[in-house]
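Something for you to look into today, if you have time. Just paste the record in under my message, thanks.
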Amino acid sequence: MRRFFIASHGRFASGIKTSLEILLGKADQVTVFDAYCDETRLDNALNAFYKTVEANDQVFLLSDLYGGSVNSELYCVADRSNTTLIAGINLALVLELVACDQWLSEQDLLEIIENSRQALRLVKQDKEALVSDDFF
């Protein structure tokens, strides 16, 4: 089984999980940690998470910002068996990871990461289309 631990500065992680539940119907395999929102420590949450992980689970640690304090703390446990750390997440990335039902190789992960980068777009309105009678 694949397991996910999403950690962020503030409530971004919880927001990602809420979006997953809306778009996928459920996100039981996703655990979140919203750092700096209360006195709960990330290391304690990680220890509790890893107590629920089975030996054959593929684990993804996902953080909001590469090099940030949350990512640095996840990095300290990224050497555990079957564990992968990905930083700088967006909803497109997490959706694809969670929706996939197979063991993901490093090549699979690189493709998913690239796909998530392609989801970032500068969106401009086509002003001609907005004034066209055919638009309505």
Summary: The helical segments are 12-24, 42-51, 69-75, 91-99, 106-118, 127-131.
